[in-house]
Amino acid sequence: MSKNVIIIGGGIIGLSSAYYLQKEGHQVTVIDQSNMDRGASYVNAGYLSPSHIIPLSAPGVMKKGLKWMFNSSSPLYIKPRLDLDFLKWTWAFNKSCNASHVQKSIPIIKDIAVMSQELYDDIHKTENFSSHYEKKGLLMLCQTEHMLEEEIKLANIAKENGLDVVELNNDEIKALEPNVEINVLGATYFKCDWHSTPSEFMETMKAYLKNNGVVFYTNEIVADLEIKNKTIKTIKTNKQTLKADEFVLAAGSWTSMLSKKIGLKLLLQAGKGYRINSSQHTNITIPAILAEAKTAVTPMHGFTRFAGTMEIAGINNHIRKERVEAISDAVTRYYPDVVLSSEEKSEATYGLRPLSPDGLPYIGKSSKCDNLTIATGHAMMGWSMGPATGKLVSEIISDKKTSLNTGALSPDRSF
Predict the structure, then answer these.
(1) How confident is the model at residue 78, as a pLDDT?
(2) Could you tell me where the beta strands, DSSP code E, fall in 215-371?
(3) 3-state DSSP call for residue 167?
(4) Number of separate domains in the chain
(5) Which of 272, 293, 342, 369 has CA 20 to 30 A from 76's CA?
């Protein structure tokens, strides 16, 4: 049965949901508060990464966060503030930072990421998308023995979960990247990972959806929801009032503001990540993460992207220059021949990633509302989990059995 569906949020999660919903024959409208040309879906590292199987809420992370709390250039910066939502999220996050939770989360994260990778490939082949993506793997580059030992431990866990990963010495790294100097002790190499140029895919997908009947309203802010008997009747934007049979809330870091209107206090914080693009001929051909610096390196279509840091400081537009410099300094430490220019650093920008306390996304319906599906909280994995999330959203709204068990992803779960 065809339904009229409104999706609030036009990032990778919203567009992926729109794609699969229109494939099921539904009438789809996407509303976004921006012009849909910026934000986390456009500035991320472009990884399609089953390798990232460890949730953000892992043992020791909170301890590091407290240690780095007053260092605004640290890889993880948590700005202390007296805000009730932040304090509740922090308490829940700290409770999730344990080995038992990690063990339970690994197969869930892996299954969504693997499914998403396969769907991403399928979309390109089915729709003849020409946007850039490659299957070159991901290097975890380590400069210290301690970090190399930690990455080898993670690689072994990944192997146990069926992922293709190997350990590399310097000669083997050089064989993979012969034209760039890399200053490291060793690495692990996730052969299972792919990478892409996010803006190309987003523009291609938007064009496809418009050509297939999806309606877009940009620069529109959803201000209110009219709810009766646990059902959303209409939504009001700053420009109009709209009706639909079903609604999808995929507004990223802003999702919890609207979920409160149905009585759902979704624990969610914005995690700011920065990116610097360089058009220099870096000679980097394989994506890498600079392990100690928590910085991502991605050779994209026509440029190299350097991205990283996790800044939990609420929703704001402030770019901290010290964090941009930290990314730039890390790049040169690992790649001595790559020095980012002042102009490249001045053009750095950011995206806000929605963080749940337990590192798992929220995907599904809440008992608070019968015709609203939540899809957010993917942290650094939004790009990697986009198509799979969209498929699950479509299956939920189409009353089909979901491809994956979404029980652990419920928006109503307790912490």
Answers:
(1) 82
(2) 215-217, 222-228, 231-237, 241-243, 246-249, 269-278, 288-290, 295-300, 303-312, 349-355, 362-365
(3) strand
(4) 1
(5) 342
